[in-house]
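Late entry, 2-acetamido-2-deoxy-beta-D-glucopyranose complex.
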Amino acid sequence: MLYFSALCVYFLMVPNPVMTNTITEDIDVLVFLPQNNSYLFSYTRVSPAIRYAQQRLKTDGGQSSGFRFNIQFENSDCVYDALFKLVDRSCGRKPDLILGPVCEYEAAAVVRLASHWNIPVITAGALATGFSNKNTEFSHLTRIAPSYVKMAETFTAMFEHFAWKKALLVYEDDKEERNCYFTLEGVYHLMADFTIKPYPFSKEDPLDTDDILQNIADTEGNAVSNSRLHQIKFI
Ligand SMILES: *[C@@H]1O[C@H](CO)[C@@H](O)[C@H](O)[C@H]1NC(C)=O
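Prediction complete; structure with ligand written out below:
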């Protein structure tokens, strides 16, 4: 629900109330959502919220704002679809605003191109640490969900509160969308002052619990020899 309501709220904030109603300006909005139904942000789940926002803008705010929002939905396959659609679409008239895509790699390509063309992008995704670079390649990106670095701030606060020093980050790296990798990358990036050890596993290289236990034992050995209290947490 967070995605829906956040998208909706932002969308409703877009019109500028100072505008008079003498001019009607068309705003072309290009929305990238997966047709594949297996995502939290799939077309069937998110598009009703966008349609609702469009309807509300038309009836409540549209006439006074002077903006008319035209919405075009395109598929996002979490790989290249959104980029190719944006390029094809922009051979004619470029969109004024892009919503999505959510998936990290796909968003990276789209946001780079959109920023180059001065087209704002609003997305509930693109949460990886690299997107924080707002000076150049991702200058036109607005993220409406907390990025992974924000999540890492929560962990940092927990570590400070409990005086934890070390962590083993156990995560699955699917080598495709890599959501778990990007999630923990934020933690790794922000918590440089702590001893953080990444421990990836994948289909080809499955989780080895004996190895994890060995890692814990090694770390605890170290802790004893240092005569200090160390704790290990699984995230
Ligand atoms: C939909 O996405 C899931 C998750 O990425 C994938 O496993 C599945 O094969 C996709 N389905 C189709 C029809 O592409």
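Residues 43-65 form the longest helix (23 residues). Will revisit in the morning.
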